[in-house]
Design brief:
The chain has about 90 residues and is mainly alpha-helical. It has helices at about 1-20, 30-40, 45-60; strands at about 60-65, 70-75. A two-stranded antiparallel sheet has the order 1-2. The N and C termini lie far apart (about 60 Å).
Length: about 90
């Protein structure tokens, strides 16, 4: 039951973030995403908000960057952007 709600809420949050072009904000803290998730889903409990955020991280919807401290900054991936694969071929004779 809880897993099903997390998936539905994640879809709402992803839709909201794509409408707001969240990838243009760059790397921001979890606390900012927490406020956005709370606004979209209407949750007050940090447990549910964190559960949704962690599910989004598992689904690789964010790019994670470590700061000089013990924390991370997150950037929402642009869903319209194609994935870039760079392949190089090296031939030696």
């Amino acid at each position: 039951m809880l897993k099903n709600n997390v998936i539905k809420d994640t879809k709402k949050v992803v839709e909201y973030l794509t409408k707001k072009n969240a990838w243009e904000h760059g790397y921001i803290r979890y606390s900012n995403y927490r406020k956005m998730i709370a606004y979209v889903c209407g949750y007050n409990k940090v447990y549910f908000i964190r559960k949704i955020f962690l599910y989004m991280v598992e689904e690789e919807l964010f790019i994670r960057k470590k700061t000089d401290k013990r924390s991370y900054l997150y950037k929402f991936k642009n869903p319209n952007e194609m994935t870039k694969i760079n392949k190089t071929i090296t031939i030696t004779f």
